[in-house]
Specification:
Rossmann fold, 264 residues, alpha/beta, seven-stranded parallel β-sheet, globular, 14% strand, 51% helix
Length: 264
């Protein structure tokens, strides 16, 4: 899929990852349709990039999700990057808070895809990209809701990719681990353990570009330890759980969940 000249709808555009993705696509000649909750932040980003279109929308509101495709007009590439943390014990959430995480992280991406995909198939070209998380491959403690949405994005994309085989429309998923200077861990001041190689927003943006340009179905933006954990999650889940307990991953998860409480 050629990015230059393509119309790209990017959700979650004003966060740290969204800004990096927008900048990378802008450099490759994309015409950006930027979606986020803050109209002011979107306007500032659009001005900074020069020729992008701001489309303020709250993806937790079903009416906003339904209206967004029509407001965007023709879309060649959809990048669903918007997401809420969903961190913390299940019982600490209200039913409304659970629905909000599911709506933003998973439902919105599915509904936008349903609305935009038929025109892509008719044109015989397009790409659908979903920014999941390594929590969509390795479920950490205190993240049952978040992991459910990120596993869901992966399953949705894998099945959709099979359905779209031969149509000219590609499907890809990017799986960031903890990202320095941006993302959910940074927002919550969550620590990245010492000795773990750092990944940055530019690395996530590069992965998004690579998914589009090469057609790769999945790319991990994570350190070797996390990638090994993803393999163990399939081959030896009980051993992985024991390893997480020994590494006291729950302590980091508790701090992260507390820091993200205000974002529910």
């Amino acid at each position: 899929m050629q990015i230059d000249g393509s119309r790209v709808l990017l959700t979650g555009a004003t966060g740290g990852l969204g800004r990096a993705i927008a900048a990378a696509l802008h450099q490759r000649g994309a015409h950006l349709l930027l979606s986020g909750r803050s109209g002011q932040a979107l306007g500032e980003l659009a001005t900074e990039l020069g020729d992008a279109e701001p489309l303020a929308a709250d993806l937790a509101k079903r009416a906003d999700v339904e209206a967004l495709p029509g407001r965007a007009g023709p879309v060649d590439i959809l990048i669903h990057n918007a997401g809420l943390p969903g961190s913390g014990r299940l019982e600490s959430y209200t039913p409304e808070e659970i629905d909000r995480v599911i709506d933003v992280n998973l439902r919105a991406g599915m509904q936008l895809t349903r609305a935009l995909m038929p025109a892509m198939v008719e044109r015989g070209r397009g790409h659908l990209v979903y920014v999941s998380s390594m929590a969509g491959k390795v479920a950490p403690p205190r993240a049952s809701i978040y992991s459910a949405t990120k596993y869901g994005l992966r399953g949705f994309a894998l099945a959709l990719g099979d359905d779209l085989e031969g149509t000219g429309v590609g499907v890809g998923v990017v799986f960031p681990g903890p990202i320095a200077e941006a993302g959910m861990h940074a927002d919550a001041d969550g620590p990245i353990p010492k000795g773990v190689p750092r990944r940055y927003p530019s690395d996530v943006a590069a992965a998004v570009v690579k998914v589009i340009e090469t057609g790769r179905p999945e790319i991990d933006v994570a350190d070797p330890i996390q990638k090994t954990g993803a393999l163990m999650a399939h081959l030896a889940p009980r051993l992985l759980r024991r390893g997480k307990r020994l590494a006291r991953v729950d302590q980091i998860a508790e701090k992260t969940a507390e820091g993200q409480r205000a974002k529910r």
